[in-house]
Write a structure and sequence with these properties.
alpha/beta, 3-stranded antiparallel sheet, D-Maltodextrin-Binding Protein, domain 2, Arc Repressor Mutant, subunit A, 12 helices, globular
Length: 300
């Protein structure tokens, strides 16, 4: 394809990311008819509709979804080349790094990371974005986030994955629970009501394992984060499930006890993900290595 207008690439990327002609026009300081005209030109050049309208916004076609990551990478190379390869000096940087993580990540993984950042990059800020696994790939590609720490596996080839921790699950209940001991049977487990953490946090392995056995938990309460669990479990007869890596901490926070799950659940890997750029961003690479060093995954 010859004489392709780079402005069309920028328009395509924003249409894909915003799923809206109106928001794309606002971001480009153009009129909506101008964006619609650009989309019409692209449809002719690619011989594909690229987007279709739906109640939730523009939906990309299969071709548009295949084109997006490659065009995004290509456009970043052009931007970087024009502006000059970025430099990053942790000792003087005032950069803000945006990290997707759960509240468990904040409690168990963030303290040593922040300590090392304070030592080596005193002007750097870290903003934690509550993990919503449904949007992390998009936000990493668009530069709205720098990294993600999560349990679910991101399999897309344009992401770098570093395993930080291997973990397993256990049950938790009130220390004075009248019916549940340290090793309940499956029937005893299923006969109790449960507090569940929303699937957006990414911890779905236990319920998936139960489903494969033909069972499901009787959920009395669904919450967004793990942090409230110790106090909720202490004051109710309900059960819940937590990663074993935080079990001691939760038992110190409230009068609760842990128990073995009466069915097999695969061990999980908590991993750090960053976006693979054609021209690596020195700041992101520094942040990635700092997280790994702080958590003992990589030597200094």
């Amino acid at each position: 394809m010859t004489d392709f207008d780079l402005n069309l690439v920028r328009t395509f990327l924003l249409l894909y990311e915003t799923r809206s002609v109106t928001r794309t026009a606002e971001r480009l300081s153009l009129t909506q008819p101008s964006v619609s005209h650009a989309l019409s030109r692209m449809r002719k050049q690619f011989n594909d509709s690229l987007f279709s309208r739906s109640p939730s916004g523009l939906q990309p076609t299969e071709l548009a979804s295949a084109m997006y990551p490659r065009l995004r990478q290509a456009f970043e190379v052009i931007d970087t080349t024009v502006s000059g390869v970025g430099q990053f000096d942790p000792a003087t940087s005032r950069r803000i790094f945006r990290l997707h993580a759960t509240d468990l990540g904040e409690v168990s993984l963030l303290p040593p990371v922040l300590r090392l950042i304070a030592e080596t990059a005193p002007g750097v800020d870290v903003h934690i974005i509550p993990l919503d696994f449904a949007v992390v790939e998009t936000e990493l590609r668009q530069g709205q986030a720098d990294a993600v720490i999560c349990t679910p596996r991101i399999t897309a080839p344009d992401f770098e994955r570093d395993v930080l921790l291997r973990d397993s699950y256990c049950g938790i209940c009130s220390a004075s629970h009248p019916r549940v001991g340290t090793d309940p049977t499956l029937d005893e487990f299923l006969n109790e009501r449960h507090v569940a953490v929303d699937v957006s946090a990414g911890h779905t392995d236990v319920d998936r394992s139960l489903s494969l056995l033909g069972h499901s938990r009787d959920v009395a309460l669904r919450i967004a984060h793990f942090a409230a669990l110790p106090q909720l479990i202490e004051k109710t007869p309900h059960l819940s499930i937590i990663p074993r890596s935080v079990s001691d901490k939760f038992c110190r926070m409230a009068d609760v006890k842990t128990f073995e799950l009466p069915f097999a659940v695969p061990a999980v890997e908590i991993s750090l993900y960053t976006y693979k750029r054609v021209l690596p961003d020195p700041g992101t690479e520094w942040f990635r290595r700092t997280v790994k060093i702080a958590l003992g995954v990589e030597a200094r």
